[in-house]
Amino acid sequence: MTTEVYLIRHGETMFNQLNKVQGWADSPLTIKGINDLKKTAEALSQIHFDNMYSSDLKRAIDTVHLMKNANEVSEIGKIKKLPEFREVFFGSFEGDDIDQTWECISQKAGLGKERDVQKIINQLGLYKFREATKAADPRHLAENYDELNTRMIRAIKKLREETVNENRVLLVSHGDFIKTLAIKYWNKSDGIHDIAFPDNGSITRGILSDDGKFEIVDYNIKAEDFRSNYEAK
To answer: Which of 151, 155, 156, 231 has the fewest CB neighbours in a 10 Å radius?
Structure first.
């Protein structure tokens, strides 16, 4: 059975608001984050889902419950948490200022004091960017390309196992993880260069085939755009 997957990025958090690195570190949703998520939940309230999942980080769990509580056409039981869909791990940089972190990685890669992460990735390519991140981490704990790619493949395999009898599911994950999935599985990406970072509460839609193949078909759709497009069909 082919499964339609709605990947939702969690709502804005305190660390997002404070411009801090937030991978496996966690912080609570802000009032703005909750209010924005209500728009996403409303846009999806008439979409039937066979099940809902989330990463095991609290900001994702809180987000998926907002989606569940607002949905009027689905009967969802206990939410299953999938740690494979956690955010990218940034090691010793967790909780640090984002701009200073990018600057540190950029200098390690020999690019000087660059703070625009998209420019850094596009100059280095995604593989070398992840390697530079791990090298710049004083404890070398940050996920490199191979570690993250292995986890993404494992995540898709796990999702296929969980959803084998489900037509459509919702899964709450994280910005950099969703973006990296799209770089790998979206035909509008070349697999090397950066793409737009998904908005908090945005909708990314993927198709998971019987054979385990995964494909992103819609990326980073805002709630209001999804609603207008869906209602037009």
So the answer is: 231
Residue pair 42/14 in contact (Cβ under 8 Å)? The answer is no
Element holding 103 (H helix, E strand): helix 98-108
Lookup result for tokens 């570690």? 147
Q: What is the pTM of this model?
A: 0.97
Q: Summarize the chain as % helix, strand, coil (round to 5).
A: 45, 15, 40
Give the E-state strand segments of the chain in sequence order. 3-9, 51-54, 80-81, 168-173, 203-208, 214-221
* Residue whose entry in the numeric block shows the structure tokens 């390690």: 108
Summarize pLDDT for 36-87 with one digit per residue, the tens: 999 999 999 999 999 999 999 999 999 999 999 999 999 999 999 999 999 9
The set of residues, in sequence order, having a beta carbon less than 8 Å from that of 211 and lying 6+ positions away, is none
Within 8 A by CB and 6+ apart from 63, the residues are: 8, 10, 11, 29, 37, 54, 172, 201
Neighbouring C-beta atoms of residue 83, cutoff 10 Å: 12
Read off the pLDDT of residues 176-204 as tens digits, 9 standing for 90 and up. Answer: 999 999 999 999 999 999 999 999 999 99
